[in-house]
Amino acid sequence: MDLKSGYPFWTVSNGLPSAFPPLKSDLDCDVVIVGAGITGALIALALADAGLDVVVLDKRDVGWGSTSASTALLQYEIDTEMLALAKMFGENHAVLAYRACEKAIHALAGIAAENGRVGFRKMQSLYYASSASHADRLRNEAELRRRHGFAIETLEHDNLAARFAIDAPMALLTATAAQVDPYRLTYAIFRRLQQRGVRIFDRSAMLDWQTKSPHVLVRADHDAIVRCKHLIIASGYESQQYLHQRVATNHSSYALVTEPVSGGLGVLRDTLMWESARPYLYLRSTVDGRILVGGEDDRTDQPEKRDAAVPKKSATLMQKMKKLLPHLALEKGYTWAGTFAETADGLPFFGPHPQHGPRVHFAMAYGGNGIAFSAIGAEILRARITRKSHPLMKFFSFERIA
């Protein structure tokens, strides 16, 4: 599956940070993780910390799939607003999901600190109303979050313009957010795990598997067989090929990064921005003073059409960004696009599916804040495999749509 178009900024700026060998012999372990992106890295870290013997496989180079195309805005806010989520599943579940994402941002800060220079920076998140008709909805959203102890500031038009030079009806400002270079973080985690004895193999595709209780036999390239107790499929948007049930819809998202902004970014250096329209425009800074903007999502799931759409989509993104930020001199740098998947409720899936039994787990961190979901999912999967409990084990599983 072709997951991206062009050359995402992270691959251009980082190159190939490390090399991992292909798998060429049979192995035994506790857990096989298929997928060496940021999701697989966070899961491998959680399982290794639990003392499990982990093997990681990827058919590409490490981080070369969707991770390399991620814009990596780390927010506790889910694409589905808390009000909407509460209507779907009840307030308690909505609050539980949002609290877990808030906790995940802090956990990711700790992981980043342990892994050196990975472009991590604590930020604030500005969620602005795309039109006046969205303003009351966002005010109600803020009130619900405050009622449950979330710190949130409501900025009306004049205050928003004075503080951020943005012309929008109103916005919500939250302090728990961050950004990271997901490609660099993925490599940093895997390098450290390799030093701890975790076996990582790229350019090694999983061909198929057989469950023969109490083991799963994973057949990979070069006729290698890995015998494990649990298999975790963390291959991002390609994971759906292993399920008869359609649990998400693939789309395409487009992004560009500017050249370094002369004169600096001001408050935008510390602020993630996104809007209330769907699909939404979103932007953030980079450590070298650029602005990264994404959006213009469409339902294209054909690589050729996605490739062809990049020039027009990137031009639209640039036009929208200049309209939003007329006080900045912006010049286009790199452009790209990538496949992403969206669930009906904006929530992820972690754990076994009835189709494959209890030893085969899925890690589907789908949605706009997939890295935060991945951090949560790593904890859920560790709890499942070590036979412990987790408050989101059922809600973030396939039981939610059974």
TrEMBL record:
Oxidoreductase as UniProt keyword: yes
Alphabetized, the UniProt keywords read: Oxidoreductase
What GO terms are given for molecular function?
oxidoreductase activity
Note the superkingdom of the native organism.
Bacteria
Gene Ontology CC entries for this record: cytoplasm
Which is a Pfam family this sequence falls into?
DAO
- FAD dependent oxidoreductase domain residues are 30-382
Q: What does UniProt give as the signal peptide span?
A: none
Cross-referenced InterPro entries, in alphabetical order?
A: FAD-dep_OxRdtase, FAD/NAD-bd_sf
Tell me which SUPFAM superfamilies the record gives: FAD/NAD(P)-binding domain (SSF51905)
Protein name according to UniProt: FAD-binding oxidoreductase
This chain's source organism reads Pseudolysobacter antarcticus
